[in-house]
Amino acid sequence: MATGADIRAALGEQMSASTTPQPRPAPQASTKARPSAPTIKPRRFKKPPLRARVRSAHWTFEASPTYSRQDQLAFRRWNREAPPGSASQTSDRFAKYNVAPDVPTYDPETYEKELADPAWTKEETDYLMETYRECNGKWPVVADRYISTNQRSMEDLKARFYHISAKTLSIQTPISSMTGPEYNLYEMLKAFDPHKEASRKKLAEGHLSRPRDEVDEETVLLGELQRIMLHQSTLDAEREDLRRRLHHPQADSSSYQYSTSTALTALWQQLLAADRARKVQRLRPAEVQPRPSQAQAAAPPPAASEQNDTPSELSKADLARFGVVLAQEKLPTGISFASDRLSKPRVAKSTAQTDKIATILQHIGVPELIPLPTIPVIEQFEAIMSKVHALLDMRKLAEKEEQELRVRQAEVTHKSSASLFAGILLLAQLAAAVKPMVHLDYSAYAGTSLPNGVTQWLGIRYAAPPLGNLRFAAPQPPLASNGTVVQANAHGPLCLATDAGPPSDENSEDCLYMDIYAPSNTTKWSKLPIYFFIQGGGFNTNSNPNFNGSGLIKASGNNIVVVNFNYRVGPYGFLASKEVYADGSINNGLKDQRQALHWVQKYIHHFSGDPCHVTIGGDSAGAQSVDLHVTAYGGRDDGLFHATAAESQSFSGLRTIGESQFSYDNLVIRTNCVDSVDTLACLRNISAADLQAVNFNTPFPGGQNPPLYMYGPVLDFDFITDYTYRAYAQGRFVHVPAIAGDTTNEGTIFTPKNASSIGDSDTFMKDNFPTFTIPQLRLWNSLYPVEGTPTFPDSGRYWRQVSNGYGELRYTCPGIFVSEVYAKENVEANWNYRWNVIDPPAAASGYGVSHTIEVNAIWGPENVGGGAPDSYMQGGINHPIVDVVQGYWTSFIRCYNPNTHRLPGTPEWRAWTREEEYVRLMFQTNATHMEGVPQAQQAKCRQLQHIGARPPSLTMQKIIQRTQRAERAAARKTAKAREHRQRGESWERSQTLNRQRRSAIDNIREAQRARKEDWALGPLAPRRDVGEKKATYGAMDVFTYQLPELDPEARPKWMHISVGDRVVVIRGRERGKIGTVDDVTQERASVRVKGVNVVDLNVPAWLQQEVSAGEEPTPVQAMARPLSMHDVRLVYPLPDPETGIPRDVIIDRLVHVNYTFDKSKKEWTQGDRLIPGTNTLIPWPEKTEPHMEEHDIDTPRFTVDEQTNRTCLLHVPMPLGVIDELRNKYSRFRTRHDWEYIDRKEQEDLRSEKRRELAKGMRTPLQELAEVRRRQKEEERQAELSPDQLARIGEVIASERAKGTRALQQGLA
After folding, report:
1. Which residue intervals are annotated with compositional bias (Basic residues) in the record (predicted)?
2. Which of 317, 575, 703, 1293 is deepest in the core (most CB within 10 A)?
3. Distance CA 307, CA 203 (A)
4. Cα 283–Cα 284–Cα 285 angle in degrees, nearest 5
């Protein structure tokens, strides 16, 4: 068995061997034989074992190198001399327990980009980091050893180190991805202020160097304060006894009544009167000393007796110091305080003026009772009150001027009034022009004012990043930022496209951004129309990104706001399968567009836009998106848009979820997710780069080659409830003004240029429309023969044949069909166009007027990011068409009519109506005019409509059955999810309640500990309202302000207290107070009483701007905290049974009576409140109209209202029934009717017309043929004869007359 000596020897050998550079022979003790165990002799007392005396180490002042410097310059420092043999034991033996300080690391590139500071060089920063590491993070040692040419204090070193640490932490972990501890550390590092730290140290140094007299004085004051707090209950009892003796009524409120000298003077006079009348012994003057009674002898001596030994006279300095005012040398007639200067300015001549002063003081945070009215405080208060009175005088003057202005407006003529208000409005616009800085409720964006008079905001986030679990999911509202201002001066990245490269700076999965353009000279009251543009790209790419809206704005005369944005495409936006339907969302790209429209409704007013005047437009897939939004949810009108302008709108083939399953399965196979139990989770977990590597088109089932666009909208029977042709034909769409149109050669850029046979043509069509049957292809070939089509160099013979058919099938005919349906639905504001502006190079190559080429002219060729034809540019042959189309387009955006503000000299764009069908405007350079749709094209489109609108019947039956099963499964899933959600919400509520209770317990314990510490240390107790808690010490956290939400079964069935009721608090620290209820929450069974239970609330930084209401944000706000319903009782004045005089009565219980269920609103009526046991009904408080505060963005009514009708009679001269009889209202011979009767008759005529139209649609083929022949005969009868025909008829008549004349002459002869 080894002894302790062997172990120590072995350890010594190992330590010495590890610390010495050269090996040494083992100590002699380690080679000896193991000694035998010593014999222990019994001893009464054990002596402590002898320990080796270790001599204390000395300090040496010697030069030591600085390894953190590159030159390793040696400085002389004090170092402790290590004792012999201790270096090895301390440096190596316990090295594994050393904790290295956490020092931020960075590379030169990161330093130059993020961490550079003009006051610090990189070498000095590196030197600071090395010194911090060498000194193990001990700042006093760092400051002592830090040597630099610049004078750096410890606070400067800390500020630089913490700044570097915060920056590197935010670079390594983005703020949105930080955990709670990481974010708290980041906030703490970022909030360090070297000036506050230096001030804190100086304050502490000043406290330590206070003179003895000041410490003694503070000790006395603190002791007096503690004595007052301890004897508070005694003072309250004495006050109540005094009230009883004076027969003083009980106060209605627990607030202190004697805060002014006036109230105390009245009390003093009452006491003197009581002394003279009743000879109250203790109220006699001090020189008369009667024998005290037993009650007086037992009572504690008054506080004034403890100060009898103090001198009765004070110096002038002491009088000013303690705020004492001497009234008279003899017995005073009243009492005066220095605080009178704080109370008298609050009282005005009128009650209304006094209330206004109190409201202003409460708004700026001046309390009603100032505890320490020192001379500086009084002077500051008087300065504030002078400003308050000046403000009230200015308000009164402004109100008077406004009244005079209105009177003057009523007197002057309309012309002078208009000029006056135009000047006022012009000044208001100049003073309140829209600013580039926009504050939204989730972030703040700083835009850029351009020299052309347009302000742009680029890269505004309108939805949360669709990453992680939000991939393949519906868009969510944008997340709140950390309070920083986002510089909106760069476009957001585009969404990842199909058959494209990996993510980059220009393309990202986090792509839900929008750009906004608005005139710089507008105001918040402008309410300009909005053009909401949806870019195209076949739902597989963003093909029209980052268009600049300045051209449209300038063309409109600075009268519109332009919005364009990105949305998810390809599999990110349109992946569909049963897995995605179960745990994700379908048609997410369209839902991104819908989310952007909701964003516009909520926030566009900050950019001077009018959310009630939105025109949505788009080209290609964007135009198809317009159609899908118009028919979304079965044609439901959500008020998101009010007009549409579609360029080359497309009716692509809609597939069901089952028909789209193949694309999901192919993607799962290519991403190696087949073996995953949850394939959708596997697709969500792989990176965007890996997903992009396998994101390419594959053939449709039944196709031979990949289509042009594999992903697209899906018939989900929710957002898209039916095929687009059928939805329009059945009238299930939002009826708004619309523009639709296309180009002359829509299909040339899509079809294969080398198509040289009918097989190539049919293969292309089958690849892109896999549901095409052989009979349908045969019909399509007959409609588009190759004969008569032109040929071009480097192209196949069938290129123009397939391009003509593809263009009309997908783009041209849908536009004609939409305009036709609008006319049948009596939508008068309906226009159609054909773009036929010929570009010479495109015409020579055979592409002609290609797909969406008009977008370059609508936006302006310099605003589309390149790609516009040269002929559209300034000086080109087609440049004049730019102003023409922009005039029509901006006029439609502004007033839903393209003719109102069109370019002067351009033709009128006639609408496509039931009276004038198949008319459209043909855009052509210097030859724009109206034309009709050719009959041949109309016939082709009717044939193609049947192909696009009639789905297979068997497929539709399967869809209906699948939908019914899905609805039942969804109902079960919804019920289960509802139950799960309710359990989760109940658990969350219980956890919230437990957290609030634990927080309250912790606060109470902390307060008790602090009180004990203050009591024990007295004036030497540490201050707690310093540092980060200087402004918020003692304030309540905002998350514990509200009472916890109750479970639904624990909530009260009805609230017997309403807003406006008066209640009394029966429990808590505010017991006995009466106030008015200004908020009631049934979910929490709580009420908020105005001015009662007021607490200091610690307002977070992100909420301070909203709460401050335009004032300087403060971290602490005084707010009334809600009370539980069980802690208050209703107070209502009821007549006294004896005197009949109403007096306030506390009502303990009420019952709910006379309530019914409103079937229209699906809720219970309010009913009445009854006191049980009596027949007394307590009425509900009268609901007053809410006070609407005026804001800068409001439009004053008097600026837009014009009085046009001035009634002469103040009252109706006779009963309305007599007036109706005089007007002959009930006679069947009446010819003048009121508007209700006219409207009813018009509706009846409309229904009759619809029935006739429906009957026409049910005719047999023979009846249709007869109707066609009848129309042809009418047209032939109505045809006018030409001059040549009339001349020919005249010649025939003349010749016949000549023949008759000659025959007559021959007969006579």
Report:
1. 41-51, 972-981
2. 575
3. 34
4. 120
Tokens 């569909």 belong to which residue? 576
Residue 771's CB: how many other CB atoms inside 10 A? 17
b (16+ CB within 10 A) / e for 403-431 = eeeeeeeeeeeeeeeeeebeeeeeebbee
CB 625 within 8 A of CB 649: no
Digit-coded pLDDT (tens) for 368-405: 777 666 777 777 888 888 888 888 877 777 777 777 77
Place of tokens 């002959």: 1224
Ranked by mean pLDDT, the top range of 14-28, 65-79, 692-706 is: 692-706
Rg (CA), the chain: 45
Kindly state the DSSP code that residue 502 receives in the 8-state scheme. Answer: -
Please identify every residue annotated as catalytic: 620
Rounded to whole angstroms, the Cα distance separating 475 from 488 reads: 22
Q: Where is 1307: in which H helix or E strand?
A: helix 1283-1308
Maximal C-alpha separation, the chain: 191
Helix axes 935-949, 813-824, angle to 10 degrees: 90
- 1118 CB neighbour count, 10 Å cutoff: 13
Q: What is the pLDDT of residues 304-320, one digit of tens each?
A: 333 344 344 555 555 54
Q: What angle do CA 1274, 1279, 1282 make, to 5 degrees?
A: 165
Measure Cα distances from 789 to 784, 799, 802, 821 in Å.
9, 9, 10, 31
* E strand map for 492-560: 494-495, 507-508, 513-519, 528-534
Strand partners, 1074: 1064
Please state, in angstroms and rounded to a whole number, the distance separating the CA atoms of residues 771 and 751: 18
- pLDDT tens figures, 448-461: 999 999 999 999 99
pLDDT band at 855 (very low <50, low <70, confident <90, very high): very high
Beginning with the edge strand found earlier in the chain, give each strand of the sheet holding 437-439 in spatial order. Answer: 437-439, 444-446, 485-487
pTM of the model: 0.48
Rounded Cα gap, residues 879 and 889, in angstroms: 16
